[in-house]
Amino acid sequence: MNTFKYTSFFLTIIFMITQNYKAISADIQKDYTSIVQSIIDKALSDSIAYQRLEYMCDTYGPRLSGSENLNKALMWIKDEMNKDGFENVIAEEVYVPHWVRGNEWCKLVEPREANMPMLGLGGSIATPKEGITAPVIVVHSYEELEKRANEAKGKIVLYSKPWLGYGDAVQFRTHGAEKAAAVGAIASLIRSCSPVGMRNPHTGMMVYSDAIPKIPHAAITLEDALMLERLGDRGQNPIVSLYMEAKTLPDTLSYNIMGEIRGTEMPEEIVVLGGHSDSWDAGTGAQDDGGGCIATWHALKLLKELGIKPKRTIRAVMFVNEENGVKGGKAYADKHKNEKHHLMFEFDSGVFAPDVIGFSASDSLMEIVKGFEKYLQMVDTIKVTKGGWGVDISPLARLDNIPVMSLGTKDEGKYFWYHHSPTDTPDKVDPVMLNKCIAAIAIAVYLYSEL
Ligand SMILES: [Zn+2]
């Protein structure tokens, strides 16, 4: 490209952006107060969304990728979306990993016998049939493990770092086994990734490195991790016995479920909103991410029932396999990359009082979306901030540079109290908060679809 062409190319781009910006700015000047009020009134008087969340969790149970439960729940979602009168309701095929837990247990053997609640981590291998019985070495960081490498050989390594947030804690869940195996440990345990303990273990995904021998990897409770640590500190040399039957089977057929309202003026431009349909196998995934799925799906249902005719197509997508592979998000990106996506929205932060609409796009678009605040604050004290995110939407959003939006909630920290544990059940979701989240999502997505 020569200099002249280069300059005119950029002038054209700047002209297009300015024109687009003017058109968008002009649009949001319209007063949406009455339509927003009708969205809020209808959302807050609804009970179907919560009933469906309870029904899905109680009837189909945990929805781990590869399980029959998950596919039954997905077919139910598809049927219900058809009943809601969405257009183009489809189940798009996705092959997902199929890890099965099997029987498992963990026991303290020395200085006394006691059962310790545990959950094998997703992707872990089994122990030998006779289990693994060995002394425990407790560490708080990989640096400490390196320093004490000569003590770890033939032992079970327990990572017991105090909670500094999910991102910090999750490193030991994801990579703890390979690091422990590298210094000769024969199994590894983590203190569950949660800020609080109610003696419930939390599972989640882990990975192995091909170059290092694989060892079983499991989570124990905060309480038991601290007990083992105290025993170790006093020189009482705790011994633990671990038994796991976990195995990975061949990938299994599953589905992304989606339905939409076609746009009236620009139907070929798509606004996606969704959550992930799969969960871990310990609870019934009411918060993670049953609530996110139900909320995004019912935000679309709300717009439909109010007879709102969006300019662009709005599509609810229940992505499969976020927890251990993101195969749903990747398959969606692959199958739909030739469509024009205007926005991708995801909700996977726990259903609590809506707090922020996070948004990632250019500064000029950010300025416009800031203008949504006055409408969002009709629901609750919601701010628009930088930083939209979503694991399932990111494969396509990154590929195509699509603006990303997400909903953050006020008690987001509490999400990790339940997340991936047997306590993630519908009673942890407040019906009023679910409806408020639905209202906030419907408003943000609708206004953006009108730009
Ligand atoms: Zn999730």
Query: What is the makeup of the main sheet?
Result: 8 strands, mixed
Distance between the termini: 33 Å
Name the assembly state: single chain
Assign the CATH architecture of the largest domain.
3-Layer(aba) Sandwich
Biggest β-sheet: strands ordered side by side in the sheet: 1-10-12-11-13-16-14-15
CATH superfamily of the largest domain: Zn peptidases
CATH topology of the largest domain: Aminopeptidase
Please give the share of residues in helix.
Answer: 40-55%
Number of strands: 16
Q: Which labels suit this protein?
A:
single chain; 451 residues; alpha/beta; Glucose Oxidase, domain 1; 2 domains; eight-stranded mixed beta sheet; 16 strands; elongated; disordered N terminus; binds zinc ion
